[in-house]
Structure prediction request, 747 residues.
Amino acid sequence: MITVLPRLGLSAISAAVLAAVALPSTALAEQANVEQEKQVFEKIEVTARKRTESLFETPTAITSIGASDIDKANISNLDDIGKFVPNLNITRYGVGNAAHASVFIRGIGLQDHVITTDPGVGVYVDGVYLGRQMGSNLSLPNVERVEVLRGPQGTLYGRNTLGGAVNVITKQPGAEEVARVEAKIGSRGRLATDLYTSQTLTDTLSFSASASYKERDGVGKAINLANPEKEIGEEQEFSGRLALRWQATNDLVVTAAFDGVENESGQSPYTIELTDPLDSNDPFNGDFPLLDESMLPNNPDDLATTVAGIESTDYSGWGGSVTADWQASDVYSVKFIASKRSSEYTGGLDDDAVALNLSEFPEEGGADQYSFELQLNGTYDSWDFVSGLYYFNEDGFTSSGPFVFSPWNTPNGLLNDGQTASFGGYGYFDINQETDAYAAYINASFDVTDLLSIGGGLRYSEDKKEANALFPSFDARKYVSADFDEVTWDVNASYQLTRDINVYAQVQKGYQSGGFPPRPFGGPDQFAAFDETKAINYEIGFKGQVHENVSMMVAAFVTDYTDLALPFNDPTAGGGFVTIVENAGESKAQGIELETTVAITDDFSVRSSIGYLDSEITHVDEGVIGIGKGDAPALTPRWTVMVAPSYFHDLEHGATIAVNASYSYRSDMQGQSVTRASEHIDSRELLGFNISYTNAEGDMEVTLYGENVLNEVYDVGRLQQSGFVGVMRSNDRSEFGIKFKKEFWLD
Prediction:
């Protein structure tokens, strides 16, 4: 491990902490109180295969981050999860809206958000699939755990889990009798509070309820607006959840849950960097003669737009679900999940980031979805199986305008001959889509002996999509439809070397649904369907407690992706925009992931992980512009590192002092799937800490915390446009403060 340090390109801090990664450590585990937090090798159960089983016995690469570790690492949103899991990167670009999350696992993900795009990694809340990237950057109060499954999950999770899946699992009603109050105050105007209660009302009925609020000042200002609605990077969000659990009979449990969120924030920090013109004779790709660096604000977090309202964003969403679990017999159980969700957002970017009206795109969108899933599961002798039928419907839209795109706009909007500078044809666009998805699946495992188990699964999926779009270059609204279907499968084997150590091997097939291009500015001919992307993953792994003080999980994998749907620019038809998507490429990802925990003493432990990923595009069809063989997939760092030491000290009167620190590293990467200097994103490393005091009764905790203590400012997205590159900057700046938690046990 130490021999590779010079090749990592790490800083002195990275080199120091990577030595700790060589110490064995396991996935993060949930712990409910101080004593449990010290038990670093307690059994961790997961539901990755839609059945409850030990983390070490699950034959797939999975990280489980529990409630205690979410708190100790100051994790507040889903994008924070991306800092602590190997070969996982969560970023955002979507019209500057903080609710947007682009989840990338092992080189697969999607940065876009328009309604006709589908994510490459599925996000689920209590088994309910979230169809949109916008709104996936969930806040995580009162969550039991987050499970991250790496690699294609086409059998049990189906469509759009090409890179993997992220399961957010909330705390269930009646699991504890408690009322909890949490509050946070910190630098940069940070205020936050969480209220939570879980109570048993009768012998058969229990409920839980939570309410959360958070706010933080911005990092910049819209300097050319007289009365800006928000500061750049400002945060403000309300959210809540209510869940009811009814034990109808000894064998039947029904759970109903309702949640909502209202987010009104400032645009994410955004700026530009000027680049050489692509072709000075082409008006679509030429240099902007009036755009120069002197027009940019001195503070790159400030925004110089003159378009009122584009500096603020909002997102609102709500959802409800009903889950029924029926133990039909000693062998069979039935599970039914029904859900309905709805969301709306506004946002937008002033692409040129200056006072010139060259390229502004105000945007709004929304989606309604509902789904039904019926499972028949069973355990009989040496057999264990999960099977199901699934239906999903989504109806949504994206619209933008009024917007301008003109490389020749002058401050007064006139050319030298007095004519207006914008092209005039650009004003509004809207795009709509409805999806119906159907699936049937079965997954089973068989214990050949007490030590050897084999398993496999099969799934048939079918998508029916209808879309329509109207763009300035269209003579009339165009209507399109397409059907997609795929059979996905997996096979696996696991062997128990000892009581505490397991090895496994698996082969998985996954797919990402086909669709329609999100921005066919070049004309109606570009608004045509592209097919599914497919993946085959080969993986071997090792999991277990290798020593009484050491546990370890290792996964090595090779994944082949075919029929890659590559977005690229057509400079003859609206250049600078993503205009065409074709199944024109192939890629390969190979790497290794190591997660370890070592208990150095009874009170001092170190959790760590390291991921290495070698991923590149191996084939591109002729005619694809801008993307070539050997290019790296977008937003895919080669190295991901996490180190989290924990120390506990018991005071004489029974209270406890806990010190937790965290370090996260992501190496450099490309903002888009192309090797271009302008879209190169530098590496970044983040440090955080918690110093907590817990009283002797264990019901009150006061914590001094620090996030991004070195105030690392880094790029989270870069997109080359005509004459400049748009740069989305990080918003998780340094923050220091105090957290307070008080619990009231209701037994």
About this structure: The first strand starts at residue 45 and ends at 46. The mean pLDDT is 86. Residues 255 and 465 are 32 Å apart (CA to CA). The chain has five helices and 37 strands.
